[in-house]
Amino acid sequence: MAPIGTIHYLVVAAALFILGVIGVLTRRNVVIVLMSIELILNAVNLNLVAFSRLWGLHGQVFAVFVITDAAAEAAVGLGILIAFFRNKETVNVDEVNLMKW
Amino acid sequence: MLFLDHIYLIPLLPAFGAAIMFFFGRRLQKATVSAVCVGAVALAFVFACGAVWQYTHLTGASARQPYEKIFYTWLGTDTGHLNYVKQDGSLAPFHADVGVLLDQLSSIWLLFVTGVGLLIHIYSIGYMAHEGGYYRFFGYLNLFMFSMLTLILANNYALLFVGWEGVGLCSYLLIGFYFHRKSASDAANKAFIVNRIGDAGFLLGLFAIAWYFGSIQFTTVTHMARSGSFAIGDPIITAAALLLFVGACGKSAQLPLYVWLPDAMEGPTPVSALIHAATMVTAGVYMVARSNALFVLAPTAMKTVAIIGALTALFAASIGLVQNDIKRVLAYSTVSQLGYMFLALGVGAFTAGVFHVFTHAFFKALLFLGSGSVIHAMSGEQDMRNMGDLYRRIPTTHWTMFIATLAIAGIFPFAGFFSKDEILWQTWTKEWDAYRILWLIGFATALMTSFYMFRLMFLTFHGSSRMSSEVEHHVHESPKSMTIPLVILAICSLSAGWLSWPHSLGGSARFEKFLEPVFANEAQVFVEEGKAKQLAAGEKEQEHTSPTEYLLMGLSLAAGITGWGMAWQAYRDAGRGYVEPIAAKAPPLYDVLLHKYYVDEGYDHVFTGRRKLGKVRLGVLGLGEASSWFDSHVIDAIVNDAGWITRATGSFSSWWDKWIIDGIGVNGPATLARLLAIPARALQWGLVQWYALVMVAGLLGFVFYYAWH
Predict the structure, then answer these.
(1) Could you tell me if B598 and B592 are in contact, meaning their C-beta atoms sit under 8 angstroms apart?
(2) pLDDT of B536 strictly over 60
(3) Best exposed site among B155, B263, B462, B683 by fewest CB in 10 Å?
(4) What angle do CA B163, B166, B170 make, to 5 degrees?
(5) Which of B544, B567, B350, B355 is nearest to B458 (CA)?
């Protein structure tokens, strides 16, 4: 059994990223889509933390920024979602097509 | 000095008579009307005689000076409210008084106007006895006397103009006395309108004098004109003199404004005698003689006056040769004699002209009154073709008219001989040789005058009767009230000329001496001009004794007798269907003369606008209509077309802006951008997850692309 190395982290992160992308592309409910975006961001964070073991603390600092950003993005996204729901009484993303030309 | 002090009564007495007639005349008896009106004129005549008597017997400093008396200021107050700018730039107050100017010139007019006027008033009692509107007739006559006397006695041009217009009004009223007759009212209108043309000239002349001299008072203007400060031929004085002469042409029936006078015969015959022969029509002569100081300074105007006068004399006399209406012959004779007077004035022989006015007043009034008596006897018939052989039936009328005819024909020693001879002699002796032509015209006119007057006499009184039996039955001599004035006038026609018995025939020419102060300085001015005019008394006396004068005198006498003889030969046996000698020898000429040279027709074509060619009016009015048509159809059309073109270009410009500038220039790029945007829009179908899928696909594409290499 080989010791846990960088490659393992990268594999886990890649799996998380793919799960996130599949979630964003396939789920209709906007809340689930937002949660899938969180998965993608966390996959990136995992990568940053994994690489910071090799090249210093910069990756960890950047991961903290991304977590902050994710929180802000989730807050704004949910705010828009609630406003949208009040108008349309739906949270299905395929019905949100007002922005086309 | 009773009469001189109360000289204002001379015009006011007839005015009073007129006022009574207009307010109460309708209710008065004919006898009362006659008494009031004739009495007023008789009193005026007495006052006139008295005033002239006293004036000529003034002694001391005022002797032979004009007697001027101002009663009150009529126009202007001398307070500066009526100031105007004179020609030299200085201010002058406009000022006209009501005042009287009595000098030798106005004395003469005063005497014969009141004298002849009185006789004609007396005559009218008989003539108008059976006519309606008796009081109206006498009211107008008195009003006329008032206006004429105002004209004569006025001391300035403005007051003279009042009288001038007054006589014009009375002339109008009296010509149109039988207003129910269309021809009479037409003639009245014609007289009034033609006179307006002359009056316009007179007014302009008056303004020119006021503008140049700063005064319109006769004495002031004459004094200034004679002061020597104006050059001979001064253009403004010439213009003023010519304008005054235009006025005289209208009032005194000279070419080309004479047309109203023959038509004025529509009025009752005493009116023709008083207004259109003896007095009113000489107002133009009076006015020119009154302005002699101005005319002497304007040789051009003098020549114009002389030429117009001579031409009028010849022109009217030739028409008179063939007229058949007894009054029309006399009317043309009057025009012709007035021409003589203006000829005299024009050649500078003012005294001779005034003298002819004086003698003419008697014999022409007599002729008209005589013709009135004939018409009265003939129950209103005026056509000489229907007369003849009247001399035994109306003897008084016959012999008085015969005397007048001798006088007008210039037979010695009747009045006309002296005055006409004087005019011809003065014309002959004037320095300017071209005046000899005027003498020839005057001489020919004298021959014609004699012919047409004796023609009138023969046709009316001699030959065989051409009357209808009904008329013949009623022929009667006129009443005493008509014949007595005829006799008195006949005596005057015989003797009036003796007042100026020439030196050459052993006389003393008292008339000339009497008038000398009025025309005094004219000789002096002519001498200054460098022309040796024979106007100074001494030279004149010498000239008068020259053989030429006897020759000319003989010639004019011969002309008179020749005319008499020709008429005798042609008309002495005139019976029914007699032949006019002119018609027999030269029918076209006779036709032209009978139609008065077609002047009235010409005026109809040129001025009155009565003639039309199809729908086009001829003459001045036609020109007016043509220019009106031109204005509305051509000028306005151009204006409208210009507007239409502007509007059309505006419409095009608007269209261009809307479709080309806005359409292609502004909206064009926008449309293009929209068209180009159509494929770009197709990408934006709005499903966010599809966008994400495309992004992932792109990402995978990149990854695989780099991984592959």
Answers:
(1) yes
(2) no
(3) B683
(4) 140
(5) B567
Report the residue from A24, A94, A97 with minimal CB separation from B692. A24
Q: What is the mean pLDDT of residues B56-72?
A: 84
Better-predicted residue by pLDDT, B548 or B523: B548
Which of A26, A96, A101 comes nearest B688 by C-beta? A96
Given A21, A33, A94, which is nearest B687 (Cβ)? A94
Q: Tell me which residues of chain B have a C-beta less than 8 Å from any C-beta of chain A.
A: 681, 684-689, 692-693, 696
Residues of B in contact with A97 (CB under 8 A): 685-687
* Average pLDDT, integer, range B488-517: 83
Note the pLDDT of residue B113.
Answer: 94
* CB contact (8 A) between residue A24 and residue B687: no
| B532: confidence class by pLDDT, cuts 50, 70, 90 | very low
Q: Which long-range contacts (CB under 8 A, 24 or more apart) does B178-184 make?
A: B178/B266, B178/B267, B178/B268, B181/B266, B183/B266, B184/B266, B184/B267
d(C-alpha B493, C-alpha B536), whole Å: 29
Is there a contact between A101 and B692 if contact means CB atoms under 8 Å apart?
A: no
Please give the distance of CA B64 from its chain centroid, rounded to a whole number: 32
Inform me whether the pLDDT recorded for B656 exceeds 50: yes
Query: Which pLDDT score is estimated for B524?
Result: 46
Look over chain B and give the mean of its residue pLDDT values, rounded to a whole number: 87
The answer to which of B57-66, B205-214, B354-363 has the lowest mean pLDDT is B57-66
CB neighbours (10 Å) of residue A32? Answer: 15
Cis upstream peptide for B502 (omega within 30°) = no
- Alpha carbon of B707: minimum distance to chain A alpha carbons (Å): 16
How far is it, in rounded angstroms, from Cα B212 to Cα B230? 11
Q: DSSP secondary structure string, B560-604? A: HHHHHHHHHHHHTT--TT---HHHHH-HHHHHHHHTGGGHHHHHI
Say yes or no for a CB contact (<8 Å) between A98 and B686.
yes
Distance separating alpha carbons of residues B693 and A23, to the nearest angstrom: 11
Are A94 and B693 in contact (CB < 8 Å)? no
| CA–CA separation, B473 and B471 (whole Å) | 5
What mean pLDDT is predicted for residues A27-54? 92
- pTM metric for this prediction: 0.77
- Quick one: closest CA in B to A95, which residue? B687
Dihedral angle over CA of B221, B226, B228, B234, nearest 10 = 60
Cα distance between residue B247 and residue B257, in whole Å: 10
Contact A97 B692 (CB under 8 A): no
